[in-house]
Amino acid sequence: MKRLVLLLLSVLGAHLCASAQLTELQQIQKLNLVYQQIRNNYVDDVSLEPLVEEAIRATLKELDPHSQYLTKEEMTETRERLREPDAITSSQRSGDIGYIAVSRFSKPLAAEFYKAYRALGDIESLVVDLRDNGGGAITSAIDLTSLFLHKGDVIVSTEGRNTNAIYDTKHDGKLCDIPVIVLINENSASASEIFAGAIQDHDRGVVVGRTSFGKGLVQRLINLKDGSGVTITVARYKTPSGRVIQRPYQMGRSDDYQRDTMRYQHPDSIRHDDAPIFKTLKLGREVYGGGGITPDIYIESDTIALTKDAIDRWLEVISPR
Predict the structure, then answer these.
(1) Which entry of 91, 103, 212, 215 is annotated as an active-site residue?
(2) DSSP states of 17-80 as a string?
(3) What is the pLDDT of residue 294?
């Protein structure tokens, strides 16, 4: 089977110079012609299904690290994962400090979160733990972030060829005044980064931990007739200050992208002289672009102590100067 895939790819690349002069429609027709030739003239009987699937995978792999092909079974798992309840894995209080851990952004997260907050009673500050939270539904990220911002505050924007939008808060959030600490690490991604980036850019709270994953690509899930599907990147997410959440990547080099460990390191050990610097929207603090959310306070995940003294010290970052 691998030989057939290589044969197909070699046929597609055989006339590269001439191909550059073909229109996009002619490119698609060319691909269809190759499959017709294999079906009608190849020496042995072969199933085109695995060839097509492998070709789709190979094509998407040459794009960005997050566009991918999903089998029928994987499509079902994806839908079920987004519908899973109980996104709140832990909620507790210590003195006047409340703590809520969120494992994923699934529906209806905002309602669950606010219920958990009310159950904490009268608290003076709140810790939102997004460590190891790989994201989820963008709508859930917008709904949760809206709880903490004021009417008209931008949550996130998207920028793409045909997908440009600005998402803002439609009314003052129920938690728009309580001081917030957001915990992140290198496995906090996507929707987690939208939340952390908005809280940081609006100076609504302090981000603590390690630099996040840097997954800020807007992806569209496309259903195919046989139940399978593909996720195609259509835009990039930007924080309210204009930072691109997605960290840099080279097309077709997803392995290098996954092995990148620079984002784990202490910000002082990372070169920032070539990274774009942005300003937060209320206090004008410097925050870094270049991918992921760089925390205001860098602390190794296994050494974070949520004491009142520590939280009071962290919150000084957003105290009016």
Answers:
(1) 215
(2) HHHTTS-HHHHHHHHHHHHHHHHHH-SS---HHHHHHHHHHHHHHTS-TT-EEE-HHHHHHHHH
(3) 92
